[in-house]
Amino acid sequence: MKILAFESSCDETAVAVVEDGRKVLSDAIASQADLHALYGGVVPEIASRKHVEAIAALTEKALADAGCTRADIDAVAVTYAPGLIGAVLVGLSFAKSVAYGLGVPLIPVHHIRGHIAANYLAFPELEPPFLALAISGGNTLIVDVRDYTDMVILGATRDDAAGECFDKAARVLGLPYPGGAPMDKLAQQSVGGVYQLPHAHVDGAPLDMSFSGLKTAVVNLAHHAEQVGEELDRAALARDFAQAVSDTLVPRAMEALRQTGYKTMAAAGGVAANSVIRGDLERACGKAGCKLYLPPLKLCGDNGAMIGAQGYYEYLAGNAASMDLNAYATRDIAE
Ligand code: KG4
Question: Which of 246, 271, 277 to mutate to test the pocket of ligand 1 (most atoms within 8 A of CB)?
Answer without folding.
Answer: 271
